[in-house]
Amino acid sequence: MLSHKVQHLEAILFTHEHADHTAGLDDIRPFVLKQGDMPIYGLPRVIEQLRIRFAYIFATENRYEGAPSVRVTEVDASTLFPLFGQEVIPYCGGTWFLAYLGLSYREISLYHRCKTYPRGRTLKNFTRWIP
């Protein structure tokens, strides 16, 4: 985000809990200071890992004032959920030992190591495909 000079961030959707996908959570501070609480979305096990790794962000007592604040939404890989007035289509795939959350939002699909497409969709349904 820094190298691309991102100025605004609407929400964060976590596909899985690997450190290379979650380590930047603390770096949302500038966005939170400008915009307020950051909505984050993820599977329950992913949110639980975030609560462990970033306990200071999720603390309710003796909270560090400089910690970024988040609004958590746990998602189920089989249930549509709303994001800014649009439906997000979650779907699950992955390896034999870890399920990843794939997401389709508007005409964009994030397909990180997923082996199936979302219900009724094919690659041709998306204008932007992020493997």
Short descriptors:
five-stranded mixed β-sheet; 8 strands; disordered C terminus; alpha/beta
What's the gyration radius in Å?
Answer: 15 Å
Largest sheet: 5 strands, mixed
N-to-C SSE series?
Answer: EHHEHHEEEEEE
Number of helices: 4
Mean pLDDT: 77
Global outline? globular
Please state how the strands of the largest beta sheet are arranged side by side. 4-5-6-7-8
- pLDDT < 50 stretches: 122-131
**Class by alpha and beta content:** alpha/beta
β-strand number: 8
Helicity range of the residues? 10-25%
Give the terminus-to-terminus CA distance. 18 Å
Provide a descriptive summary of the structure in words.
19% of the residues lie in helices and 28% in strands. The chain is globular, with a radius of gyration of 15 Å. The protein has a 5-stranded mixed beta sheet, with no helix packed on it. It has a 3-stranded parallel beta sheet with strand order 1-2-3. The protein has helices spanning 19-22, 29-35, 44-53, 55-58; strands at 12-13, 38-42, 70-74, 81-83, 86-94, 99-105, 108-110, 128-130. It starts with 11 loop residues before the first strand and ends with a strand. The protein has 4 helices and 8 strands. With 131 residues, it is of the alpha/beta class.
